[in-house]
Design goal:
Largest interface: A-B, 91 and 76 residues
Strand order of the largest sheet of chain A: 2-3-4
Oligomer: heterodimer
Low-confidence stretches of chain B: none
Number of helices of chain B: 3
Number of strands of chain A: 4
Radius of gyration of chain A: 17 Å
Helix content of chain A: 40-55%
Distance between the termini of chain A: 39 Å
Chain lengths: 175, 133
């Protein structure tokens, strides 16, 4: 019998220590604990590691603080392209999606590829057509479009138009 | 980018990662997140890994499976392998971090950036979270 354990990350694009106010820090800690709680609930009931990582990632995807799904950043065309991957260490089963927008939780899209297709990685239109036939919740563009990410995109496009050097912080670049 | 790695009571490992990329990226650009072996990897014999950072560098160095390989073939510990890969990526222009969990023991959460939103829980059920060093 192994000792269950779970680790999560919400990205390395953190605000600098001096630029993060206590309220923002608290919000991130709360969100991280919520993801740990979701995954730990599975593991503490003898659930699978695969299910635990799925629900932990879903919790982070649902939170617009992080750069995934509802908090995803925009590409240079002002569109959203999300990627996700999942892998089981038991049998090396794996699934991934790239360049998609629509599934509320891209990690579920990746898992659907793993469990219900003969492929490992599906991208773009082909992925979205496959996913439309799966039991996955879809959301409109408005669900994923957040004001904070629109502001970040416009600032970056303006910088490029001006020819100014790229001095973005990790937080600005990676969201 | 967000991610999770886990070990269950049966000893099975798993990894998952999800991202939006980076702000104003070139349309069609895909980073390491969905690339199995680069941004996401799991093998019960060694470890499960989820990464975040400069995707192109993580892809070129197949960062996630490199950690597994160092455990399997160089007999490194999880911490040695994970920290070693992050240090090597940094010296090659890659910034970011990763979370990794092995067959036993605590997870490893190294990063070479100013911070990484992160957290873990062991069998004691205590949630530990951190942002900066």
């Amino acid at each position: 019998m192994a000792e269950p354990s779970l680790a999560i990350h919400g990205g390395a694009g953190t605000l600098p220590l001096t630029g993060m106010d206590p309220a923002m820090a608290d919000a991130h800690h709360t969100a991280l604990r919520a993801a740990l709680a979701a995954g730990w609930k599975v593991l503490s009931k003898s659930g699978s590691a695969l299910d635990a990582v799925t629900v932990a990632v879903m919790t982070l995807e649902d939170d617009d603080l992080f750069n995934a799904a509802r908090g995803a950043v925009f590409n240079a065309d002002g569109k959203l392209e999300m990627d996700a991957g999942i892998m089981s260490g038991r049998d090396r089963a794996a699934g991934a999606v790239a360049g998609i927008c629509g599934p509320r939780n891209p990690i579920l899209a990746a898992r659907a590829v793993m469990e219900h297709s003969e492929t490992v990685l599906l991208a773009g239109r082909g992925a979205e057509e496959f996913l439309a036939a799966q039991d996955i919740e879809f959301q409109s563009f408005d669900y994923f479009c957040t004001e904070r990410r629109v502001v970040a995109l416009n600032q970056e496009l303006a910088r490029r138009a001006s020819g100014a050097p790229d001095t973005r912080s990790d937080a600005d670049r990676h969201g | 980018t967000v991610g999770a790695v886990a070990r269950d009571a049966a000893g099975n490992l798993a990894a998952g990662t999800s991202t939006g990329g980076f702000t104003a990226k070139r349309p069609g650009r895909v980073g390491d997140t969905p690339i199995i072996g680069a941004g996401t990897f799991a093998d019960n014999a060694t470890c499960a890994v989820s990464t975040t950072g400069t995707g192109e560098i993580f892809i070129r160095f197949t960062a996630a499976s490199e950690i597994s390989a160092r455990i399997r073939y160089a007999s490194q510990t999880l911490e040695q392998a994970a920290s070693g890969v992050i240090a090597e990526l940094f010296s090659n222009g890659g910034d970011g971090g990763l979370i990794a969990i092995g067959r036993a023991g605590p997870p490893s959460l190294p990063f070479n950036s100013s911070g990484m939103y992160r957290g873990f829980v062991l069998s004691d059920g205590v949630f530990r979270t951190a942002i900066h060093r």
